[in-house]
Design a protein that fits this description.
Layout (H helix, E strand, L loop, with lengths): L1 H40 L13 H8 L6 H10 L2 E6 L2 E6 L2 H9 L5 E3 L3 H6 L10 H15 L2 H20 L7 E2 H18 L5 H14 L13 H33 L3 H9 L3 H11 L8 H16 L1 H15 L1 H20 L7 H6 L2 H14 L4 E6 L3 E3 L2 E3 L4 E5 H5 L15 H5 L21 H18 E5 L4 E2 L5 E2 L4 E6 L3
The structure holds protoporphyrin IX containing FE.
The site of protoporphyrin IX containing FE has 23 residues, from helix 13, helix 14 and helix 20.
Length: 502
């Protein structure tokens, strides 16, 4: 009897083991097949050399007058969506406007931002540039909502006007000036005002010095040892956190004081709007229940991180607008005519400074010059994301954990989308207009992370161009645009100006 039981048990063990082995191997085989099948479905392309991939060719194209040539070559070989390996990462590149739109819209939270390691080291974990989901939506809406309020628009228009006027007044004494430096000075003052209402003085100077040191490390080797670029940038960030942290603390104390002492309706309305982004985040924190409060170090860190997308983009757009206008005198004449007309009208009717509506709605050709500058300059030439799950867009398969580069420049410089795409032609916008929802015009990105500084940037550019063309004529010296790692002028665009007597 015992022998029979043993025999049965032995048979069961053998059968179970065989079943398990069969199951393991068939699944292992299936998984292998599945992986191979998935890899087969990844868009075509070349991964280039071991480790380096196709990085050298990618960077080299950034030093030519046609940085999009890297993308164009591969698009003609493999199609509008292809794979490559650049900057240490295997990546799927999309040059297709519709695919880009789906990636940026990010329905179902499939994609998260993907930055090089040096950038993630420098950004806080809670930076608006890195957070996702509902928390990101909340912070994005707060900032975007504030920048759209009529009170903010009125206030910032006058602040920008004042800053541009003051800076341009000093130009008449200069023999030669560098547009890139001058533009950076103006826009930094405006940015710091928008974020934390700091005016000229010691804090502004320290913020400028430390911020410049901080952003030098955004694209560098991710090594944190003393003496390295990343280490110096992290130290600069510590100093920035101290200054901004103090400003936030002071503002919080003042807000609590005001909220405790004064509860009349008018004051509440005033507090509801806030003077700057620090106020908006503090007020949100104050109004929220404890579980939703934004900690002070979150506010401080984000004020610094919000300076990153705003600091280089607007001055480069200003500089490149001057470059394109210098190269296209017919456009410049037309722009000057429109702006002179508005200036005269304001003077004759004694209407004071131009308003937000004047700049944004009464200068259509100026806005077209701005659109054309943004299209052709491609200051942010692409947006990096990482897929958190397998996804298929327009038949293109993007597996989980792969990076995607939505190439904005490829769409802006595509003949299918724009006739003679390399021609600086502001008149093209008269036919089409520019809408935020356009798939083929996305200098400010799109979807969930659409740039909240979009209108502010257009306003700064309009005020700068208005004052520039109504006050000065200029001759630009020869200079070239470099596109890597970010868009810059090789010589910062030197010009000689002469005042226009009106
Ligand atoms: C010509 C000027 C500008 C251009 C071309 C530009 C472009 C962009 C682009 C393409 C994005 C999307 C990034 C992504 O999807 O990952 C973005 C995001 C952002 N921009 Fe701008 N930007 C400009 C000016 C500004 C200014 C002046 C500010 C400051 C108020 C600003 C603040 C931001 C912020 C905070 C984000 C992150 C939004 C989020 O992730 O929710 N930008 N910008």
């Amino acid at each position: 009897m015992d022998q029979l039981v043993f025999l049965w048990m032995g048979l069961i063990v053998v059968a179970a083991t065989s079943f398990w082995l069969w199951w393991f191997w068939s699944n292992h085989d299936n998984n292998k097949k599945k992986k191979l099948h998935l890899l087969h479905r990844v868009p075509k392309g070349n991964k280039g050399w071991p480790v380096l991939g196709e990085t050298i060719e990618f960077i080299a194209s950034g030093y030519t007058s046609q940085p999009v040539s890297f993308m164009e070559k591969r698009r003609s070989q493999y199609g509008k969506v292809f794979k490559t390996h650049i900057l240490g990462t295997a990546i799927i590149v999309s040059t297709d406007a519709e695919v880009n739109k789906v990636v940026l819209q990010n329905q179902g939270n499939t994609f998260i931002p993907a930055y090089p390691k040096s950038i993630t080291e420098l950004l806080g974990q809670n930076s608006i540039l890195q957070i996702n989901g509902a928390f990101h939506k909340r912070v994005h809406a707060l900032i975007g909502g504030f920048l759209r309020t009529p009170l903010f628009k009125a206030r910032i228009t006058q602040a920008i006007h004042h800053s541009v006027q003051l800076n341009l007044a000093s130009w008449s004494n200069m023999q030669l000036l560098y547009v890139q430096d001058q533009a950076q000075k103006i826009t930094f003052e405006v940015l710091v005002k928008v974020l934390m209402s700091v005016g000229p003085g010691e804090d502004l100077n320290s913020l400028k010095v430390d911020f410049e040191e901080f952003i030098k490390g955004l694209i560098c080797l991710p090594v944190k040892l003393p003496g390295t670029r990343l280490y110096k940038s992290l130290k600069a960030k510590e100093r920035l956190l101290k200054i901004v942290g103090r400003i936030v603390e002071e503002r919080k104390a003042a807000m609590e004081n005001r909220n405790n002492n004064n509860n009349n309706d008018d004051d509440n309305k005033e507090r509801g709007v806030g003077n700057d982004v620090v106020d908006v985040l503090l007020q949100e924190s104050y109004d929220s229940d404890e579980s939703r409060r934004l900690p002070l170090d979150f506010i401080t860190g984000n004020i610094i991180e919000m300076m990153i997308p705003g600091e280089e983009t607007v001055p480069m757009a200003m500089t490149l607008a001057v470059k394109y206008l210098s190269d296209n005198p017919v456009v410049l004449d037309h722009l000057r005519e429109e702006n002179m007309e508005l200036k005269k009208k304001k003077m004759i009717d004694n209407l004071g400074n131009c308003t937000w509506t004047d700049y944004m709605e009464s200068l259509p050709f100026t806005q077209n010059v701005i659109s054309e500058t943004l299209r052709i300059a491609n200051i942010i030439n692409g947006i990096w994301r990482k897929a958190v799950k397998d996804v298929e867009i327009k038949g293109y398969f993007i597996p989980k954990n792969w990076c995607v580069l939505a190439s904005l420049i490829s769409v802006h410089m595509d003949e299918e989308n724009y006739e003679n795409p390399y021609e600086f032609n502001p008149w093209r916008w008269e036919k089409t207009g520019t809408t935020v929802n356009s798939n083929i015009f996305t200098p400010f990105g799109g979807g969930q992370r659409l740039c909240p500084g979009l209108d502010l940037s257009r306003l700064e550019l309009a005020i700068f161009l208005h004052q520039l063309v109504t006050k000065y004529r200029w001759i630009a010296e020869k200079d070239e645009i470099v596109h890597f790692p970010t868009v810059k002028m090789k010589r910062k665009l030197p010009i000689r100006v002469t005042s226009i007597s009106t």
